[in-house]
Structure formats: C-alpha cells, structure tokens
Amino acid sequence: MRSIVTGGAGFLGSHLCDLLLEKGHDVICIDNLVTGNARNIAHINSDSFTYLKHDITRPIYFGDKIDYIFHLASPASPVDYLELPIQTLKVGALGTYNMLGLAKEKRARLLIASTSEVYGDPQVNPQPETYWGNVNPIGPRGVYDEAKRYAEAITMAYHRYHGIDTRIVRIFNTYGPRMRANDGRVVPNFINQALKGEDITVYGDGSQTRSFCYVSDLIDGIYRLMMSDFTDPVNIGNPAEMTVLEFARSIIEITGSKSKLVHRDLPVDDPKVRRPDISKAKEILGWEPKIALEEGLRNTLEYFMSMRSEL
Ligand SMILES: NC(=O)c1ccc[n+]([C@@H]2O[C@H](COP(=O)([O-])OP(=O)(O)OC[C@H]3O[C@@H](n4cnc5c(N)ncnc54)[C@H](O)[C@@H]3O)[C@@H](O)[C@H]2O)c1
User: Fold this and answer.
1) Which domains, and CATH codes, for the chain?
2) CA–CA separation, 72 vs 69, rounded Å?
3) Distance 115 CA to ligand 1 centre (A)
C-alpha cells in the first residue's frame, strides 16, 4: 500500500505517518512546513518513508501507483489561520482540488481532514454530522471554517460526479505531543503558561466548553474511517465536555503550578460550546476514545518538558 499524507510534518500528520508505517504502508509525506516542523518526522528512519517539501496549492504528479491520500495540510490553529488567511483559503480550495485530481488520476481513495469548525458557533449541542452549522462567512475565523466547508463540498462533488472514493473526517479539538508550544491553541497555551509560572489567560469568563481528544485516539479513528466504506462525514473527537475554566484548573493541578488565572476578552465568533456526537463513529467504525484526559495531559506535559529548551 502506498499512501500520501499532506501536512505530514504537522502535529496530526506526523502521528499518522508513524501509524501508517507501523501498518506496513509506504508513506509519502508532503509538507511545505508553513506551520509544521521537520523535527516532527526526524525520528523516522525507514526506506518506506519519503518526505517532499512542496506546497500542495501547486499541482504535483507521481509516476507510481498511489492507494490512499490523507489530506491534512492546512494551518489549523486560530493564531496560524488568522496570520495566514489567504494560504488557509488556498489550501482548503486549491490544495483539496489538486489532491482530488490526483486521486482521480490514480483511482486512489482520498480522506480529507475537516473540522468541528464547520459547525461554527453551534446552536445545537452536542453536534451531530447532520447539523449544518452556524458560521459567519465574513468574520476573521471564516477563512478557516469556509475553507473546510468548501473542501467538504468539492470532495462530495468529485465523489458524486467522478465516482471518487472519498472520506470526510470532522476532527474536534485534539491535543498531544508535537503540538507547537506557541500555536495558540488552549492546551499548549495553558501548559506552557503553567510550566513557566505565568498567568493562565482564559478568554471571556471561561464558561465556554470544549472537549479534548488525545492524538492516538484521533489517529486511530482516522485510520478506521479511511479503511471503512462510509463516504459521509464522520465526527471524531472526545465527547467529554468541560468548561475552559475547569480545564485551566486541571492544568494547574497536573503541573503543580502556582500560576493564577486571568481573564481576557473573548475572540470574535468564539464558539460557546463544542462537543461531538460520536454515535456514528461508534456504530460505523466501532470507535470511541480510550485515553482519559489526565493520562493524555501527562504525556503532553512530558513532551513539553522534554522540549523546553527548543520550544
Ligand atoms: N489538531 C486539531 O485539533 C484539529 C482539529 C480540527 C481539524 N484539524 C485539521 O487537521 C489537519 C492537521 O492539523 P494539525 O493540528 O496537525 O495542524 P499543523 O499546523 O500542525 O499541521 C498542518 C500541516 O500542514 C502543512 N501545510 C499547510 N499548508 C500547506 C500547503 N499549502 N502545502 C503543504 N503543506 C501545508 C503545515 O506545514 C503543517 O505541517 C488540518 O487540516 C486541520 O485543519 C485539526
């Protein structure tokens, strides 16, 4: 089996490369390192692994057969996509278009990494796949949400019109080793602030909810979905919902930090609730998360501590 992973030098992509190699795939990792880091794949020492530095908004051709394309490339944290709005829209649109073209030529199966952000600031909680969302298309976050909504739409169009074998995973907040310390997402933010003894910045009053999935659970879900025969979107995430304030307190407890909580203004269009309905993943993939928050946070903390000099 030969698989492509776009965004393979990023947080999730690098863990997916590891899993695919373990499963015996030949893996081609394509990444332009705009938000990823070669350090995430530096440990891979295998003849079955190739890294190509390439921006997938430009076409790419391969002579050999390709069986699976896992399309994960995209800035993913709010800090990144607010800094890179055009690149985010381009990779969701042109990048997905190029990967669909490649899938069509190779008769390969393609999975796209979509997101819970397609539900925007949801008016339904938990969010099932049938919910169409509440997205502000012209707000600052719209660049990411709409890029992913477009990516889903063009993927379904290729599936229906060209008969391409496609999968769509809607990923909910995921955390773990190899997240960038400064990527602005709540888990690395809080852990780093706690480790440095700095104030922990909670946006708003902290009553907004999130649910956090550990990376190994998420990657297992992505792999199962790719190997299934299910072509509609599937939520993968951890349904254990907590407020951001509760989460900040768990971080202080686990790190034993003396950090204090401080409140800052809520970002524009920040979702008030976020929790996946994973009935479909359970039923179709036999998947549900296994790693409890405390265990996942300890692993993540260990990673951040080991990388402290570099981060
Ligand atoms: N981590 C999460 O909680 C989460 C949640 C929902 C969706 N997702 C989706 O999962 C995917 C991976 O996210 P992540 O958290 O690993 O982010 P990440 O930023 O660590 O990884 C994304 C990778 O894509 C690469 N990339 C971006 N644009 C590219 C381009 N034009 N050409 C080639 N490579 C490009 C980056 O360099 C980076 O290595 C993204 O599509 C993201 O939208 C992630």
Assistant:
1) 2-176+214-238+277-290 (3.40.50.720), 186-208+241-274+295-306 (3.90.25.10)
2) 9
3) 11
